[in-house]
Amino acid sequence: MERRRFLEKAAMASAGIMFSSAISPALGAGTGRSEERKQTAPVASGKRYRPQTLSGFGGVALGNGFQANPDVECLQAVEAAWNAGVRYYDTSPWYGLGISERRMGLFLKDKLREEFTLSTKVGRILTPHENFTLERGLWKGKLNFGYKYDYTAAGVRRSVEESLQRLGLSSIDIVFIHDLSPDNQDMKEKWLDYFAIAAKGAMPELTKMREEGLIKGWGLGVNTIEPILKTIEVADPDIFLSACQYSLTKHEDDLNKVFPKVAERNISIVVGSPLDAGFLSGKDRYLYSGKFPQGVKEKLAALQRVASNHNVDLRTAALQFCAAPEVVSAVIPGAHTPQQAAENAASFTAKIPAAFWEELKKEKLIAVNAPVPKG
Questions:
Q1: Non-local CB neighbours of 349 within 8 Å, separated by 6+ positions
Q2: H/E segment holding residue 156
Q3: pLDDT of residue 137
Q4: How far is 126 from 203, CA to CA, in rounded Å?
Q5: pLDDT digits (tens, 9 = 90+) for 226-235
Q6: 5 burial type by CB count under 10 A (0-12 exposed, 13-18 middle, 19+ buried)
Q7: 176 with 127: CB under 8 angstroms?
Q8: What sections of 86-145 are H helices per DSSP?
Q9: What angle do CA 107, 140, 102 make, to 5 degrees?
């Protein structure tokens, strides 16, 4: 009951935000997408909540993903994104096992709460553990927490409360059920067992929290499409974070299987890993497995060739490509330096010639039915 009262007070602290009109800087001019969004209560209006800006900031690097990053540099990166007009920030307890939430909250705590959208995730409860190590260690540096899975109703409430404490903020806008997916190496083929727990616990509880005004929307944050399609069948989600599924290198499954289904329900998509975890911006890695799928390096070379033909920055093109579909409500590239954050934000306003996209389709480097920016 103490946790329930805590969350009710948090909702009161942010009262009125759901019915406010949020006008954000135009970070979508190059994509042909308007950035002015009026936020309304989903239940009252029949509309589902969307982030305040199409251009977002992903929190993996703030959690020391791939390498340990200094606190000051990470805070400067978030500040650079804010100064560039970014008003959507995504994090998770999983990112650095608490590190990303703490760093992101340290910057955002001094901003007016109604001026930005914040999403975090549930599904793992952090447990104190000095010098915790991961067998498959994406998170670098010193870790002081382990984790356990909990997709129950009580687990969701507890996770949200603990995230608020780490963030130092009064409310969370969007909650994603995290990594409930067959690619989760802790679950593998047992992911459906966890899904069954979430379908009876986490999902109806998040719907209830939305109705209570504690959050504005919920969905899944996953790296595969099967959990998204299954959740649409059994629950009432508002928004999905689809990572690793929509980029210049791979997009057909999301485009042809997920996007039509979510559009039917007015559900939107946040595109995660739009640069394939750095692959499309010059990093010698592809996503999170440490492996390069067959043909992906050859496709990168072909994309770079076309970009060179039209004097286009490939990273900018990659971000605008992800932002082009109407069903996409935000794109969240990560950053751990001010330069990266500023460059990512600037990419959404850059002009790319229509001939570039035409050549990509002619060369069959992107799907012929893939939406492209409106020059």
A1: 26, 27, 28, 29, 30
A2: helix 153-167
A3: 85
A4: 20
A5: 999 999 999 9
A6: exposed
A7: no
A8: 99-108
A9: 20
Amino acid at site 245: Q
Catalytic residue selected from 49, 95, 286, 288: 95
Cα–Cα distance measured from residue 341 to residue 260, given in angstroms and rounded to the nearest whole number: 31
Percent of the chain having pLDDT more than 90? 85
User: Tokens representing 330?
Assistant: 């935000």
- What confidence tier does 140 reach under pLDDT thresholds 50, 70, 90? very high
User: Do 321 and 57 touch, CB atoms closer than 8 A?
Assistant: no
Q: How many Å apart are CA 317 and CA 350, to the nearest integer?
A: 9
Distance of CA 82 to the CA centre of its chain: 17
Residue 286: active-site member: no
Phi, psi of 313 (to 5 degrees): -75, 120
pLDDT at 46: 59
Which helix (H) or strand (E) segment holds residue 331: the answer is strand 328-332
> With a threshold of 0.85, does the pTM exceed it?
yes
Both tokens of 6, joined, read 């805590």
| Least confidently predicted of 5-14, 130-139, 176-185 | 5-14
Q: How far is the C-alpha of 228 from the C-alpha of 218, rounded, in Å?
A: 12
Measured distance CA(175)–CA(241) in Å, rounded: 10
